[in-house]
Queue: 4 jobs
Job 1
Amino acid sequence: MPAFVSKRAIVHLDVSGTPKQVGEVRSFNIETTLGTIDVSTLATDWKKFLVGQAGWSGTLELFYDPTDAAQDALVADALGGVECSFTFLPFDANERYQLKLGGATGGTFTLGDGDLVETSALAYNAGATAIATALNTAYGITGITAVWGEEGALIIEFPVGVEANLQIMSNLLTGGTGASCLLITERYEGTGYVTTWSVSGATEDAVGVSVSVQGNGELKLNA
């Protein structure tokens, strides 16, 4: 029955096929369990069990802005039984992404968080420094780095505590296929349902809530 406790997690709701982040998670706890079946016989001194199906559940502490209509609508969906996706970063690692442009030979693309943050148009052959500079400008921070890795992939790393939700926003690339931007930080991912939602405090611009989650299916490491 392993348990993991940390301060980094991302909660998404699927909206028309697009994952949208809900709130800002400040801490979480997840627990996995294995069901057991008692197969003991009365003639023995010790009980014996068969291991059955696995399951997981968790709790999260997060802030969200109820005055943001889009965010409030997502919360209403979560409380209405819509399945959520969860990404847990239990090792307090920085978010790292692998960007591949699928062998593009022309065109442009942009990167962002799927919402308000978006870079200026980047050429298909933009260098690592240019991409890192564009990201730092778009996110309004410093410390985002980008270095070339294996097989022409660019590894982008964000500073501690930044929940980037990085993705390709505009894809006008030509001459290639399968451009992608994937989170590669060691993590657990799974889907589940919000079972309780309790207000636990508020700040000037956000409401604090405690959330209980029941997993639905497998909790995967580095899904």
Job 2
Amino acid sequence: MHFEILVEDISGKTTLDILVPKIIGDQHTFRVVPYKGIGRIPKNLKSSSAPNKRILLDQLPRLLKGYGKTYANQRESAAVIVVCDLDDQCLKTFRNELFEILLNCNPKPETRFYIAIEEGEAWFLGDIPAIRSAYPSAKSDVLHAYINDSICQTWEKLADAIYPGGSASLVKKGYQTVGKEKSSWAKSITPFMNVDSNLSTSFCYFRDALRKLPEILFIPEEREANLCKEDE
């Protein structure tokens, strides 16, 4: 099976390039496609920006329609996986808006939406031992005060624990620097993460659903092809 994973930024790609093989093993293929921000779902589901702007939600209606056509007659099972942050949105409303995009596709690609609550850094904070391995001087009081998947300015909490001067110091350097630092955290923390002991509920939902998906979508022809390979 193939997983086509869409994420809102380069730090998300860095994270999932490392985590996905830990979750699904090496018997499946995947590609993580990063965008340059999450944006907003466009009114009437018609994109208002050029494709080269690469804003995930703005382009999502067009992207899912394209994947629907691409995967319609493909023998190998494939799914589009959209991973994004909840930020300050209502989870139920946001999910309904995402599914509305999918309902407007014909044919519909197999698609799953996974939302990090509140931000992707919640998945790092679900594995404090991994943070400690990457940043041995991380502040224990900040890490242990965090409640998993709470709405609490998540990336700022992580910055307060591991960045010199905390989030206040980092914000003063501008959001371009913030973005670079987030990518650095992803590169440093993710290799140490244990996907089976993470305490983030949203991460566990993502992990478990990803593992179940091949069984749900498995095509009989694929099973036959795999058996033939085993007999060779």
Job 3
Amino acid sequence: MTDDQRTTTMKAVNDFGFLKLQEVLMDAPEKKLMCIHAKSTAEGDENQGADAVVIFEKHPFTVASIEKILSGDVRMTLLMENDVYRTYDLLAPQELNVIKSTLIYPATERHIEKWRVHDMEMVEESAATYKAVTLPFLQSNQFSIQWVYNILEGRAENDRIIMDETDPKDGFVLAPDLKWDGKTLENLYVTAIVRQRGIRSEAIEKRYDVRRSSLRIFLHYQPTYYHLHVHFTHLKSETMSQSAGKAILLDDVIDNVQLLSDYYATKTMHFVLKTNDPLYLEFVAKGVIKSA
């Protein structure tokens, strides 16, 4: 079953009791994040037995949460004491133990593989390789981007929209990325989904009081989905999505295209792929790179 053939509607989810754990796809203690693969056990549900991907992530601390802890409304268990150093386990109030969760359901095998931890490699893609291998592959192997159209057409996430320029030529929708909790400015992550072209950052400063000079504005190559979109993150934010081999600064893209209109049509690109990524496997199958 393809992504497009899968149903995009589901009953309201009030808990995860209908899911049975299959495997842990990613365990990232440094990010306070875990991603799992599960299956639906809901009897009578049209998606019974379907796969699901669930990402669990603890919220970062805020000044308000620290003040709540310092108010004394916690239970403390001493773990270690040595001279002036003490380590405790704290049992904080329930409202401070909120976990952000993202549910992908029904999930495809590609969703599962996207979140499964694998080795990564830097690959080289010439203009000829793009035309002969990458482009044909992308034309026949893509995630459904119906969720993008839902946002652009006002059928989803309306309450999250920061700015909506509806002009079909120059319009775009600016909204918080799902990877951001929408609160901690140091982790700010906003995405502009372009109707055709036209990117601005003034709305972010107006909404969050974060200056343009404090923003990292970039595109991804390879992108997660093939509809032009631009990423905005705070300079204090540190994520893999903005690392070399993945992110290209928007200002550099604009400068390069102004210097040479077909710059990216002729340039050899270098980017990172997981060794289980379907595109990586296609590169191996076509002899572009050797298998790891």
Job 4
Amino acid sequence: MKYSGIALKIAVVCTLYISVSRPIGAEESTRTEDSWTALPDDQSEDTSRGAAFAEHEVAAYDAAAPASSAEPLAIPSQFTFPDDARYDRIEKHDRMNTIFGIDVSHYTDSRLNLDDLKVKNVRFVYIKATQGTSSKDAKFGQFWDGMGKLDPAVKVPRGAYHFLSSTSPGKPQADAFVDYITLHGGIKTGDLPPVVDLEWDVTKKNPDQWIGHSADEIVAETLACLKEIETRTHRRPILYTAKSWWSDKTIPLSRVAAFKDYPIWIADYNPKRKLKEAPNVLPNTTTAIWQFSDAALIKGQVASYDTSVFYGTSDDFEKTFGLQ
């Protein structure tokens, strides 16, 4: 099978569970829901990751790939659950050892039917919780609580992620993230590891606020955030990023070894890499999952979704994400 040669390496995440009666990360906090400000629904502050990849990968990105419109993509541009999660268009047989999931945020339509996800072959869900030290995703509670209350017959693993802001230090951002999850019940046994999202920090006037910060500062603050999350949750966090973001203007690839202890959730939407199912990964790191689209569909559901894939068996998935 073509998967045997893929650049992804299955990550075994060292996950520590503490035998306590309350959820992991549930240290005392005086913060209330009103301590955070809801992120705006105005998407004018954002740029699509597809647009970012097209801009920053330059020659490596080819939005028209594959060259022939008759040539199918292994992961099609218009990926649709459940069909494309079950069937390999290239090899023309049911998929094996591929587990697909989505991530959601305040941009996601509130009508998303969580009870319908498992039957549509959505096998995991990550939910945006916070950004910076004082911004929350207003739909985190709806999706996090809703996923937690699903009947076991339709339940899929949930996880929370934090968008790392360039405007405040990493440790207080980690504390804000864990405090907000704790406010909604905390990370429980069976939940996915927490995630830190390190990428373009966009505003209307600035395509990336990380530019102007030194590589030493970005590395130090990202590590401070990751380490504090691990200290408080007893879970090794995952680092979400895109190789095309790494540069002499942010962090040069020569510094990637600083993150060797953290599994990587790589984002890469390049159609040619979807053709071969071989994303552009960070060197000398372990890639856990690959986000390949921000426009996947779910039959019978509204809107579109960021979508990722894990390569491995269900047992591999549970071991990698500490679900056993």
